[in-house]
Amino acid sequence: MGEATSYDAVEYPASSYPTTHPSHLAALAALHGLAAPDPQTCRVLEIAGGDGINLAAMAAGLPQAHFTSFDLSTAAVERGRRVVAAAGLTNVDIVLGDLLDWADGAEGQYDYIIAHGLYAWVPESVRAAMWRLVARVLAPEGIAFVSYNAQPGGYLRMAVRDMLLHALDGLEGDARMAKAHAVLQAYSTQREGERLTQQALRAVAEPMALKNDGSLFHDELGECYAPQSLVQMASAAGSHGLAFLNDALPKMVTDGLPGEALDDAEVVRAAQASDYEAVTFFHQSLFVREGRAPCRVVDPAAFGHLLASAKLERKSATEFVHEEGPFEIDDAAMADFLGEMAAAWPERLPLARFAGDAEKQAGVLELYQNGLVQLHAAPFPGTTAPGDAPEASALVRAQVALGAPILFSLDMRVVTMPPGPRHFLSLMDGTRSREQLAADWGKSEFDDQVSADDAIAQLAKAGLVLS
Ligand SMILES: C[S@@+](CC[C@H](N)C(=O)[O-])C[C@H]1O[C@@H](n2cnc3c(N)ncnc32)[C@H](O)[C@@H]1O
Description:
Layout: H1 6-9, H2 22-31, E1 43-47, H3 53-61, E2 66-71, H4 74-87, E3 92-96, H5 99-105, E4 110-115, H6 124-137, E5 138-149, H7 153-168, H8 173-187, H9 196-209, H10 213-220, H11 230-238, E6 242-247, H12 264-278, E7 282-289, H13 300-303, E8 307-309, E9 313-314, E10 319-322, E11 325-328, H14 332-344, E12 349-350, H15 358-369, E13 374-376, H16 394-401, E14 407-408, E15 414-415, H17 419-427, H18 434-443, H19 452-461
Parallel strand pairs: 1-2, 1-4, 2-3, 4-5
Antiparallel strand pairs: 5-7, 6-7, 8-12, 8-13, 9-10, 10-11, 14-15
């Protein structure tokens, strides 16, 4: 048993992070003309992965790949192990460990290394240990993902944090959290005669006011808060033989692909300038080993090997609706491709049809940047055509059995579901034929307004069915 930490005392809400998935990271490498390890058989390490659920979600869909998560919190590690054991996943290890020990003692190599939500919330000694560990165990063609609160947005968040800490001085436990919510609520309410600076800070406080206790406690009120600039990150990476590749957040993809042949230092400088312009708050920076010479203009050859998916509704030849709202596409070939992806969702379609067409490739990249299309290096990990004895993801069946409020799909979506479909999911263990499923469903306490076949199809669309 390790020493109790603040993460043992207050649970951090776990989630799955689709941008960290090897299939996404390999796709980004390919855009730069870089080979990346095959997501289907890769080795992934998550540093400070909490309960490891992010890796468990990947592991459920990539049975030939191997996943290791370590964390300092005994409570988080035990929580994650319970889920993984209940799911019977043998390709994921969730272990108790201190980054300070791993940095200089870890063995082996990893193709993808993830450090999500750690770097800006730990002291300098732990930040330095992260770079030592990445430099030590990243495979030659590997990719490291590091998310952090960024500058200059971090300066604004720091001001709100200082204001909060001032207001909470002397308070502990529930009283402290209640006051934190009340202060944020008041601060995020518009005041008369507000100056622009007050408006800016209110915009920062607003989303904080909506946070649950776990996030607020750790993200905003944690002991340490050290937002980083991209230049600082690239410089720290450089002193460990690592170089900036790109950002994993689609909207920032031009950070690493400015479309002209800049050298690595110029790329970072230009991306930093756009951070100042956009007042960036958050980065998901990717790093590779120095000397890999990523191409800074999309590699047309690699592009043709990628896959794309899009969750859209086609309204007419040129009109579509995305969850963010409606949009139109003039280019008929692109519109038809979007239509095909919409019909096939969540399946992924090859981009080979646009191989060698620079204009179409730029168009797809723009759709990706705007969040309308996702790019992948590996096929959809589930099925949209379940067989006669459908099998739901082992992870979601375990989550249902353990009463988890949210489920994580095979393609890393967060899914909430009422008790009826949850029960149906638990029946879909690969041993029951469709006929048997319908019979057992009929015997259950849940209303069977939806036929078993329709329920199976809907769950498959939600990314919850393996075969
Ligand atoms: C904000 S949580 C993020 C958890 C997870 N990566 C996520 O994004 O959901 C930060 C995590 O870092 C872990 N941590 C902090 N210092 C650590 C260290 N020295 N070694 C390992 N884990 C550490 C904490 O226990 C906690 O689980």
